[in-house]
Amino acid sequence: MKNQKIAVVAFNQISPFHLSVPCLVFSESLPVNPGLELRVCAFEASPLITSAGFSIVVDHGLEALETAQTVIVPSWRDPNERPPQPLLDALVAAHRRGAQLVGLCLGAFVLAEAGLLEGRKATTHWAWAQDFAKRFPGVQLDADVLYVDDDRILTSAGTSAGLDCCLHLLRQQYDTATANRIARQLVMPPHRQGGQAQFIEQPLPATSRDSRLSSLLDWMRAHLHEQHSLDRLAEKSLMSRRTFTRHFRQLTGTTVNDWLLRERLALCQRLLETTHQSIDHIANITGFGSPVSLRLHFGKMFKVSPTAWRKTFQGNETAPR
Length: 321
What we know:
about 45% helix; six-stranded mixed beta sheet; alpha/beta; Rossmann fold; single chain; about 325 residues; globular; 13 helices
């Protein structure tokens, strides 16, 4: 990421949290990457009033977009408000010259208003997904995922998904070790794949079946070392296979196999980061069965081997025999 310039667009009534997301991720990488330059810019006169009531001073205008390799719109103050034309024009110009554009949370509305998401896959905060789909029918909206990367344009769901998206961007542009280190400093999972489901508001299980499923998920987490078939899980939930499959997807946003894979990989991460257990033993207690299977799935998900992951978090310490 040599001589990498990143421009983050601020505006009046911006949420301090959303503005801080890209600033946290990329400013933390500055000590190990002196070629990275992060600029917060605005199309409105400074100081800007945040949604929390305090003001911030921004030193750069939209000219920062003219030389940035990455432009991030961290949110938008009102999905029903069309962004000003100078901002939309600047985003289009940046994309035309090859810059990577990122719309976090409601920032996807800004990219869509600029016409940059037409015909592309994208996502946004689940609470505004229905409105987004109606207003931008030409966009292939997937409201069930954390973030979408579609050929130099990234969009993410709300709040913490923005952090996942920025870490993905950092991992993509720089390296996995740096992204993992920053994730650890932020006390968050080093990697959640974009296809993972958003945490959609569901205060209480809708039915008694869903209550049984919630208990089943806890049981499955405690028995990841076992092999689980659909028929066995459906029987344990007192449902038919078809009913179980439907309710499982409604509750988790994914299939049983995908859910199990993510849970097993998450457990692998924790064991690699905090223990000296062998790869063979970790493969057995997480349900992968063999180190070959563990390495295959781990490498496919995180683009790094389990051993390299362990070294990232434990240094060059070697596991005792």
